[in-house]
Design a protein that fits this description.
Length: 292
């Protein structure tokens, strides 16, 4: 949002030829970026502001993640999971009000680049008689998400750094006794996690216009997905995300809501309750986790 606002800062000047019905010159707003780089290049920079924001999101979110972990989160590692969840919620509420103060309460439209406007019709591709359209940007977002998930999974599973982090999550004290600075690695991982969240937020902006409370909307769902998938299990979180997302999509169909009104608002939590009652550690959680 910040980058978009910077790129759209405009100068106001009277147009030499355009006039209103009274003969007064019309005032025209021209973004400074178009004045500096020309109409074509400047317009392209504004049009591609969402992809360009990815370049800024990585260092900014790495820094924010570092500050959050060093200043607050690290003090709750040895405390119960409930305390960690509560401090995260509290921090989210504070950040929500900060964003509201600087950007206002109204959603900020953030369009996708013109090249990705419109939809792709899967109907002919699948041999269907009817149309099955899906927005181009959602396809881009799906591919981007799959790439990020694959990169995070490979980093945690196949690198020495990732293996040490997973070992530290399982037995922090033993890893520390081996002379490894696990706190520093946790800080780096928290920064990486913040950067991944920032990238996801930037790419999602054209789908859901950014607003000050959207983070809190997704925070609750994220906790549900993590718990249902299994604490500490990345494949479990991915599986739970797909499962709950598909169920919510089906529950949002008019035919389903006509039978059970409001089911789309509670289906995720109903499924989470059923799974946790029958399998407390989640779908792919380690045995013994959250089963005491």
């Amino acid at each position: 949002m910040t980058l978009q606002r910077i790129l759209t800062i405009s100068s106001v000047a009277e147009h030499p030829t355009q006039k209103d019905f009274l003969g007064n010159p019309l005032k025209v707003e021209t973004p400074y970026v178009e004045s500096w780089f020309g109409t074509d290049i400047g317009g392209s920079i504004i049009n591609w502001s969402v992809p360009l924001a990815l370049l800024f999101a990585i260092p900014v979110m790495l820094f924010i993640g570092y500050v959050m972990e060093r200043g607050l989160i690290k003090h709750f590692y040895k405390r119960p999971h409930a305390d960690q969840i509560l401090v995260t919620f509290g921090l989210a509420i504070v950040l929500q009000e900060v964003i509201k103060y600087f950007y206002g309460a109204n959603p900020i439209p953030t369009p996708a680049p013109d090249a990705f406007q419109g939809s792709f019709d899967f109907g002919p591709l699948l041999g269907l008689d009817s149309s099955l359209a899906y927005p181009y940007w959602r396809l881009v977002y799906f591919g981007f998400s799959a790439m990020i998930i694959g990169a995070v999974f490979a980093f945690l599973q196949f690198t020495t750094f990732g293996m040490v982090v997973r070992a530290g999550m399982a037995d922090r004290e033993t890893v520390g006794l081996l002379g490894i600075d696990i706190d520093r690695r946790f800080t780096i991982m928290f920064g990486i996690a913040a950067a991944v969240a920032g990238l996801a937020g930037v790419m999602y902006a054209p789908i859901n216009s950014p607003n000050y409370h959207m983070g809190m909307d997704f925070l609750v769902l994220s906790f549900v997905v993590v718990v249902v998938g299994g604490m500490g299990s990345l494949p479990g979180a991915v599986l739970a995300g797909f499962m709950l997302g598909i169920l919510e999509s089906f529950a949002s169909m008019n035919e389903i809501k006509a039978i059970i009104p409001g089911i789309d608002q509670i289906i995720i939590y109903v499924v989470a309750i059923i799974i946790l009652l029958t399998r407390p550690r989640g779908l792919m959680g380690r045995k013994g986790v959250m089963e005491e």
